[in-house]
Write a structure and sequence with these properties.
422 residues, alpha/beta, Urease, subunit C, domain 1, TIM Barrel, 2 domains, eight-stranded mixed beta sheet, eight-stranded parallel beta sheet, 16 helices, binds N-(iminomethyl)-L-glutamic acid, binds zinc ion, Probable imidazolonepropionase, hydrolase, EC 3.5.2.7
């Protein structure tokens, strides 16, 4: 019998979970499953077919053939990261805004000065589909080198039909040619386009953009799985947000929206009403909102880079975990928070949001996979899931969080194929 990969004798084989739990909450998030001296076998389809102690796996596969064997003695292995929130398709450079923010400008002040999303929209509208794809590819390469094997990725820098669909086409094409797997999200309601009111923008989305999305999806040109809205004062407020999310849901999209970032907008409460899958940001979430999220359940996708770069108070991660909200992590990679590194995000989650390292790992793997509805195949190293992994050059896996900036990543593996080696 022939297999694609044999990971042999990892000092720590961090499977994250066992028994195919779809996600973890509360105290469960403080425990990651680890097999000491662990081995793992991936079949030719890229799926894990066996995991266990080397003393059991070794003899069982003595006569098997492998395309690749990685001796992981003295090393640790963890699942590839699932980045739960990114905006990786854009043109234009906003490094000048970083200087403005360092000098004290707020996110809204930058936006009001014609910067922020508006700036990126202007550049992204002008770029061709091929140009956007060639800007996206090196970003995905950089994510991969930092251990990310799957991302959620949004449109949202078009704010009109053609550019929004162009962005979704770019994501669809990239998913076919790049090892980083992409779950795409339609975010036509990221900001109010210049010259429109929120009501007009909402109407355009519901009556014009969403029908086109459905047409292109049926034609196999795009593959959005989620619908998103930036629910915020001066952007899309409660009624418009509800209308857009419901219209997306009616097309079979999962609701996964930006909420309670700069102002309290009753996001958790709305998520309960609409049975939303996920809310991102949540810096200003209410106690009631968190309780509703725990009960629904709605995943909380926390983005510590936003609080860091904008000097905001970080979201109440500890309280969310205490209340049983399933917490996930995302890089929020975008021209405002230019971060392509989940190890850095996990480090920030620990230091700024007081999560422990086990919680951070679960939030960056199994739970973020669950926020995208793919935790039956992604997010932990269990039989029947894809062989997406990181080999760390250290006998203890926590070094990937602890060693800032240049974590000791030796290999990144997607579906059993080594796609990056140091
Ligand atoms: N808050 C809204 N959207 C993005 C920022 C987008 C931008 O500034 O270009 C976010 O998630 O942080
Ligand atoms: Zn975002």
């Amino acid at each position: 019998m022939k297999y694609k990969l044999y990971i042999k004798n990892a000092t720590q084989l961090v499977t994250v979970s066992k028994d195919n739990k779809p996600f973890l909450v509360g105290k469960e998030m403080s425990n990651v499953e680890i097999i000491e001296n662990g081995s793992l076998i991936v079949d030719e389809k890229g799926v894990i077919v066996d995991v266990g102690k080397e003393q059991d796996i070794g003899p069982k596969y003595r006569d098997a053939e492998f395309e690749r064997v990685i001796d992981a003695s003295g090393k640790s292995v963890i699942p590839g990261f699932v980045d739960g929130h990114t905006h990786p398709v854009f043109a234009g450079d906003r490094v000048h805004e970083f200087a403005m923010k360092l000098a004290g400008a707020t996110y809204l002040e930058v936006q009001q000065a014609g910067g922020g999303i508006t700036f990126t929209v202007n550049h992204t509208r002008q770029a061709s589909e091929d140009e956007l794809l060639s800007l996206l590819q090196p970003r995905l390469d950089r994510m991969l080198r930092q251990g990310t094997t799957t991302i959620e990725a949004k449109s949202g820098y078009g704010l009109e039909k053609d550019t929004e669909m162009k962005m979704l086409k770019v994501l669809h094409r990239a998913n076919k040619i790049h090892p980083v797997e992409i779950v795409s999200t339609y975010l036509g309601a990221h900001s109010i386009p210049k010259g429109s009111t929120a009501a007009q923008a909402t109407q355009d989305i519901v009556e014009n953009q969403l029908p086109e999305l459905a047409r292109l999806r049926a034609a196999g040109e795009i593959s959005p799985a989620n619908i998103d809205v930036f629910l915020e004062k001066g952007f899309f407020e409660l009624d418009d947000t509800r209308r857009i999310l419901e219209a997306g849901k009616a097309l079979g999209l999962e609701i996964n929206f930006h909420g309670d970032e700069l102002s309290y907008m009753a996001s958790g409460e709305l998520a309960g009403e609409l049975k939303a899958r996920a809310i991102s940001h949540l810096e200003k979430v209410s106690e009631e909102g968190m309780k509703t999220m725990a009960a629904t359940p709605t995943f909380g996708v926390l983005l510590p880079t936003t609080a860091y770069v904008l000097r905001l108070e970080a979201p109440p991660a500890r309280r969310m975990i205490e209340l049983g909200v399933p917490v996930c992590l995302g890089s929020d990679f975008n021209p405002n928070a230019h971060c392509l590194s989940m190890p850095f995000v996990m480090n920030l989650a620990c230091v700024l949001m007081k999560m422990n390292m086990n919680e951070s790992l679960i939030a960056a793997t199994l739970n973020s996979a669950a926020s995208l509805n793919i935790s039956n195949t992604h997010g932990s190293l269990e039989v029947n899931k894809f062989g997406d992994m990181i080999v760390i050059d250290s006998p203890r896996w926590e070094h990937i969080i602890y060693e800032m900036v240049d974590p000791p990543i030796l290999n990144v593996i997607k579906k059993g194929t080594v796609v990056f080696s140091k």
